[in-house]
Sequence to fold (140 residues):
Amino acid sequence: MDRSEGDWFRDGLRFSCTRCGACCTGAPGFVWVSSAEIAEIAAFLEESVDELGRTYVRMVGTALSLIEKPNGDCVFYDRHAKACTIYPVRPRQCRSWPFWESNVRTEQAWEETCRICPGAGRGELVPYEEVVRRVSEIRL
Fold:
């Protein structure tokens, strides 16, 4: 993403996580993970990489994704606690939410993100440079 694409948010964007779980629950999707992230999650859970892979990871084409619960929730989201059970080592895709290229490409895309995420558009002002850095972490 270059400066001209992000000119509409040159003053930054507001975001503060409300722990609502909207980004972790609902419709099925993909939470892409790297081998390094799988190893980090396995260490955090005190499991072997092989065990974690067999239990929580699936192949999608040539990529790796976390599995979902039958209701579409992320396998690591605890609805009762309203928390990610691997929060300190959550995948880069999760850490960069809502600053995905698809969400900030246009002002209209950001407005749609704000409709589905109660923390988007509110709270702490995230400077332009930080938004761009987070967008560059992952392309979705």
Summary: The longest helix spans residues 35-45. The first strand starts at residue 13 and ends at 15. The chain has two domains: 1-23+97-140, 26-83.
